[in-house]
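TEACHING EXERCISE
Course module: macromolecular assemblies
Task: Read the component lines below, then compare them to the predicted structure of the full complex.
Student: A.B.
Group: 4
Components provided:
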Amino acid sequence: MSTTNNKLSNPNLSEVEQEAIIGTFVRRYENERLRKRWSHKLSTDHQVYRPATGIPRTAIRKIILPILAIAASLLFLLAFLPGFLQTDGEALMASYLTEVTIDNSRSEPKTELEQARAQLIENFNSGNFEAAVSAGKGLMLMPGATDEDRYSVGLTFLRNNNTAQATAIFRELLEHPTDFKTEAHYYLGISLLVHGETAAGLSELKRIKETDGLTLHAKAQKLLEAKWD
Amino acid sequence: MRYLWRVVTFEQKNFNLSEIEFNELRDKLVNGDQHLFEHIFLQHFQKCMDYVIREDKAEDDVAYDATMDAFLSFRMKLVQGKVNYGNLRFLLTRMARQHYYKRAKKENTLDLDLIQHQVADEDFTNNADVMELLQRGWSTLGEKCKHLLHSFYYLGQPLKSIAARTNRKPDALRKQKQRCVDQLRGVVLVK
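Instructor-supplied answer key:
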């Protein structure tokens, strides 16, 4: 039992000590009554209510806020950073398209076919895609046109933004065994992407394996990893 | 003119009370009439609590309790004649902050000078066993005893003035008060 209790039990308790103990008790007791009365008056007359006991702000500051900050940062990283890190697919595709050239290492054109082919290549590589398309249409009608010619005409349509025609030519190339199978898959994918058929285009790019050619495979993979809206 | 908005009148610092009204309020409290005090001060409770929350970034519930503590201490100081007319608003808000510091057990950067009596009282009243016994003892007292102890200890009225008001002899009242205290202590003695 406490010292105060022992003192109160002591019949020889001095008057000063008694007054201190009893006075303190009465003040505390009456204060508690008054606290209840004022609490009631505050809520009924002044609409002031005692807020529910919550987690101390210091605890919030010390524990919960850092946790929330970390969680928010992680959420931000998960939600937005991949977007920032991810290359924009359309921009990547556009940059790949501008790199496209058609091999012009052939010998001096002599035949009509060779001249049409040379005209296409020259216009294509100089950026005159409309003229290249025109030459390509003529080339396709010639009986000696090869898969390589079809492939070049497909690229020409693609660069001239005639994606439907480009798609048709690359699909046609894939209908039979050809040395340009990987290129056909790759540019068919690109044509579909440019045409706005993103899922179909990416699906086509997925067909390209590492063994099909490192350069096109690497480009296809980058396009597959890129961000597409 | 530019700083006119800063000017706070003397009465505004004292909850719009003139010195005469303040003295009247104190007299009423000493005589056990709380209504005027409640009418004037409770309407400032919210502002005082908000001040503690703002200044000390206090938790709402602790700020409420600390403000209530301050109002009780302030009332007690008024009764004891320890509060002078001057800047009551400053005094009350300062007391509320000191009570907040004590309740929140914050590192004490604030002098608790205004609530010292409360700190001393707590050494005793924090003892739950004693408080429970005394409360049990209190419930055994008659209304006359309760009223007498309330007037003497809580309202701080001297026995002489209580005797004069109740047409009793001071010596008789002193004996009655002792009997009341003995009865209160009796619960502890027989425990």
